[in-house]
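thought: fold this chain, then report.
action: predict
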Amino acid sequence: MDVNEVWEKTLSLIRQDINSAVGFNTYIKDIKPISLEGDVFKIAVSTAIIKNMVLLRYSKEIENTVERFISRPVTLKVILKSEEKTEEKITEKQQVPE
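observation:
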């Protein structure tokens, strides 16, 4: 199962669990899954406010729900969408040793 499939399944369960449609639509709906590498599930959000809210209110629920689908513990890493390209470049540089 790839990261997008995991995220779609996670979203469907979280949508049911979050009591507020406003909370889901404001903080969760537009999250972009980035990667699932080892025990780190990385997602990107659009603003620092959303990042903080996801970390404070929803990180454990996201981690627990992802764990249900992949059958292993994960740690959530939240980045800003504006940081996504920078992180990709760092990862590429780390993988280049030839």
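thought: worth noting. Strands lie at 32-37, 40-45, 75-80.
final: tokens above.
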